[in-house]
Amino acid sequence: MRLLFIRFSAIGDIVLASPALRCAKQQIPGVEIHFLTKKSMKAVSEANPYVDQFHYFDKDLSATIQELKALRFDYIIDLHKNLRSLRIRLALGVPYLSYNKLSVEKFLLTKFHLNKMADRHISLRSVDALSPLGVVYDGKGLDYFVPSSVTGPTLFPEGYVALVIGASYATKKLPLESLQTLCAQIPHPIVLVGGKEEMADGDTLAALDPARIVNTCGVYSLHESALMVAKARVVISHDTGMLYIACAFEKNVIAIWGATSPALQVEPLMPADSKARVFQSIVPELSCQPCSNFGTKTCPKGHFACMKKQDLPEIARQVERLW
To answer: With 0-12 CB in 10 A as exposed, 13-18 as middle and 19+ as buried, what is 157?
Structure first.
């Protein structure tokens, strides 16, 4: 049996889809797993041992479709469910399975704050899509694989907190002044993790205590940053891809929620037998939260209470508890 899995982006979503790939490969005898994603997302899954062949979409979808047609898949597993994946499904003309995206339920939750969400994590729903093929969730959590050729830097051998300061949208990130306060309240070494967009903020934070706080934002590759997270004793992260990579490494995690929410069924997922601990920092009793599936550039209400009212002393206390 030959299966084509589709998940175009983003980093966190691809990691959240990883249990479906693993469970399919381990539970369907002789299955051949193909995975289609955006070329820009290549690093996220390139070392996944459960994938037999990768396909990367860049700009020419028609060329990608012609490549896929030649492979004669038995099923398409659509874990993205957008117009682009629909076009591929129609062009290939083979049976498909897809996960319950809960689009209507998410709309009701974010726009009218009516919680009709199914009590089923997005990763488990992705595995559920494979139930007609006899596949079930194995309880082993998320996967992220770093190529053996990649070695991350050694920082603070005695241990450190990895503080992920980036996120795809502003309403999913603590303001810089809040990050400064939080860094001052954490007594342990801190490694700042993020992309090039966070370099300037990282420099500002590192300047608070250069001997204790190191800014790696924009300096290292995704895999190298993942290894820094893997070596941390505690990981603090906004709702972003590195949060789920930390879960894949079974790290003690503090998740900080702003515009989005665990109610969207995207909370940190650990293996059923994991000893890793999770603390979710969310401002209680905010009638406007969550306001978005993915985050927004600015707060729709203008007050940004979901981040500005975060209990920073409690986050620092949780660092001590998890340390």
So the answer is: exposed
- Fill in the DSSP letter of residue 284: T
Question: Which domain range does residue 67 map to?
Answer: 2-133
Could you read off the pLDDT of 107-128 as tens digits, one per residue?
A: 999 999 999 999 999 999 999 9
**How does the average pLDDT of the chain come out, rounded?**
97
- CB count, 10 Å around CB of 313? 11
Tell whether 308 and 188 lie within a shared domain: yes
Helix (H, G, I), strand (E, B) or coil at 215: strand
Do 105 and 26 have their domain in common? yes
Cα torsion 42, 219, 177, 156: sign: positive
Contact 117, 265 (CB under 8 A): yes
Cα distance between residue 39 and residue 57, in whole Å: 5
- H helix count then E strand count, the chain: 13, 11
Of 133, 150, 178, which residue is a domain's last?
A: 133
Length of the chain: 323
The per-residue pLDDT for 65 is 97
Residue 283 within a domain? yes
> Do 128 and 175 have their domain in common?
no
pLDDT score at 152:
84
Domain at 294, CATH number: 3.40.50.2000
**Alpha-carbon torsion 111, 116, 122, 126, what sign?**
negative
Whether 311 and 242 share a structural domain: yes
- In angstroms, rounded to a whole number, what is the distance separating the alpha carbons of residues 252 and 177? 25
Q: Is residue 147 situated within a structural domain?
A: no
Domains in the chain, number: 2
Tell me, what's the pLDDT at 24?
A: 98
pLDDT tens for residues 260-271?
999 999 999 999
The model's pTM is 0.97
